[in-house]
Amino acid sequence: MSIMMQEEKKRQRPIARRVRSFSESFKCLFKSPHLRSSSPPNVTQLPYRSSSTSPKRSSKPLRRATISARLNPKYSSMQQRTYTLKCHSPDMPHTFKRTESGSSDISNRDRSVSDKEEGIINESRGNRNLESIGLHSTQSSHLRSPSISSNDSLSATTSSSGSQWAMDSLLDDSDNDVIPYRGSEKEKLQSKDWAQYNFIDNPDKEALHRATSYPNPHISRQFHHKGLYIRSSHPDEKSLESLPQLADAAIRCIIEQDGFKVYEDGSHEHNIKLSGLIAKMEKSNFPSTHRQGSLSRPKLGISLSGLFKHHKGECDIENALSLLPTEEKPEAIHEKITGQSSADGNGSSLTQKKEDYLKIVNPDASLGSDELKLINSLSNKIHKSLQNFLQEKNLKPEESISEQAPTFQEKYGHPVGVVGAGAYGEVKLCARSRTDKDSPSFDTYHDKKYIYYAVKEVKPKQDSDLEKFCTKITSEFIIGHSLSHYHKNGKKPAPNILKIFDILEDSSSFIEVMEFCPAGDLYSMLVGKSKSKGGLHPLEADCFMKQLLYGVKFMHNHGIAHCDLKPENILFYPHGLLKICDFGTSSVFQTAWERRVHAQKGIIGSEPYVAPEEFVDGEYYDPRLIDCWSCGVVYITMILGHYLWKIASREKDMSYDEFYKEMKRDSKFKIFEELKHVNSELATNRKIALYRIFQWEPSKRISVDQLLDLPWMRQTICCLIYDSA
Ligand SMILES: Nc1ncnc2c1ncn2[C@@H]1O[C@H](COP(=O)(O)OP(=O)(O)OP(=O)(O)O)[C@@H](O)[C@H]1O
């Protein structure tokens, strides 16, 4: 059957294709400086480098260079729409007329909040958080779905080691009656109970109906005329400043499930558990005489104490130096890239010369001239440092920044804990004291005292291929940085993309500084929910899905496909703001110099989320459509609390095979048919959307753009309002 599928797909895609890696997308960018020619880079005339040279990893996500190919004419050209955030925030203040403690039914929300009250509210909410938050352990990465790439053999990628299916193991361990996969004996017993996962137990059906009917007269009135929310200090929500504040309005809460609340006006509220580390930070009483601009090392207890001792070979974060170039004059940059002085020749202007060798045809692409300069500069420095690391010279990083430049401590503070672990190192939380200069806008999570940053260490291994490692960290940083600092044409960065601030080096590793998301990742959230059976409330999952799709749409509009969308790469703020992270496997399918979208081949991502076309040997596919499939799997995982299948391969997975057969036979899938929602209209619209996503033939699959335009997503009330919504 798979041969038939291959044949069928081959017939549909008669276009000759070629393979191109991320580094190859930018001629000479990743060559050692001495190899770099002085000729102008021309991205369209590159020799292709085989993707098989990508670094191998045993059980961890493998970062993979981008593979692209000639445009397949059936791929539509990208629609360049922009949107800005209008409303809601991670720190959005709400006051609550709470019901008596212990009362399980209805609570009211009073939305009359003045500016003066906002501080008080924030403070009181902080206190409430402190009361309610317990320290939850850091999820170790080995428990998660490892990313895979085309460099792994198919057999290797489809192995299901004990550690690989952590979510299921957790389900098995904690709930004997919850079934990880369809097709097993255990599952047969359970299949009749699928519907229970999303049973909407709401006593006030009429209120629920009113709240979720579309279009909702209440919600439109409040969002657009009265201004539902008061702005907070998160930079993404700046436009909230212009919104009028609400008049007194007591709004009844009609659904409450695990902290998620839906109000009778159709609006909702997420209350995602704050990281235990933040709670500890807030509780600790730090000495007030800590160094200017930095945080005194806190005494946080036994578990974190070892973190502050610097051992030999360990990352010396606080002495790390930024690899980012200081502001250079355009002439100097030009000279660096081209090897020619801008003043030489017949005196033609720099602009003219730039245009000679780089014709920008797609100004919205994330990777353009600025990124090209940055890539050149970074790859030079990383190459040099890597040679030092690998030859164990242990040389101190070159003082590449001016003496006046702030130190790591001044900019990002001190490490206070570990929030996660990646394949090449840990992700740490750094905190520094707030200063007057920081107000009023923040690019990362902050509380009243501190500003927090997530700091990811990336350390080369002894057997690391120098060039591949350089490509990996450069591409991860550049893609993340360009997406999160997309200010070209006066546009705002996307609210759903994690901000990447800086890349630094110390004597043994590279350090990426990111926005910190204090409510952890979706994976941890789902594991928590799984223990108490089932997934998220469908209205909560819908809101997250909408944010996820807008984040992915933003990436696609700027020439990048994520290629590893999974719950581990989706982070949250406590009030439900979603951020997509980890661009290490992202693919550049279109640069600023290209009009065409490049297809790619090979397996990228993490098995349960990988689209079926990726498993077809040698098959080229549109990377945007694999993102769409992954979003669908993420959504179903949010709803069910576990994977739909281990792998979308009929030969390897009974559950997927069953899905395929059911769809062929009945054009229906039992699980999708049985999924419940708060009303039949939403249930039907969602089902239609799911069928459009889960098309194994990519040519029949819906795009992310189209998905956002379906009634399901248009109807979904989201915490954020986008311009194009
Ligand atoms: N900015 C952040 N804020 C909060 N938590 C984070 C942040 N970045 C990462 N984490 C946590 O750390 C975990 C691992 O991070 P990351 O996804 O970057 O590693 P990875 O993908 O396993 O590593 P690699 O990039 O080497 O493949 C995440 O799943 C998340 O729980």
UniProtKB/TrEMBL annotation:
Residues 413-713 form the Protein kinase domain. GO terms for cellular component: cytosol. InterPro entries: Kinase-like_dom_sf, Prot_kinase_dom, Ser/Thr_kinase_AS. GO terms for molecular function: ATP binding; protein serine/threonine kinase activity. Residues 35-48, 127-146 have a biased composition (Polar residues). The gene is SMKI11G0520. Belongs to the protein kinase superfamily. CAMK Ser/Thr protein kinase family. NPR/HAL subfamily. HAL5 sub-subfamily. Gene3D superfamilies: Transferase(Phosphotransferase) domain 1 (1.10.510.10). One of its GO terms (biological process) is intracellular monoatomic cation homeostasis. It catalyses: L-seryl-[protein] + ATP = O-phospho-L-seryl-[protein] + ADP + H(+); L-threonyl-[protein] + ATP = O-phospho-L-threonyl-[protein] + ADP + H(+). The keyword Cytoplasm applies. Residues 107-119 have a biased composition (Basic and acidic residues). It is an enzyme of class 2 (transferase). Residues 31-63, 86-169 are annotated as: Disordered. It comes from Saccharomyces mikatae IFO 1815. It is found in: Cytoplasm. Residues 147-163 have a biased composition (Low complexity). Keywords: ATP-binding, Cytoplasm, Kinase, Nucleotide-binding, Phosphoprotein, Serine/threonine-protein kinase, Transferase. SMART domains: S_TKc. This is Probable serine/threonine-protein kinase KKQ8.
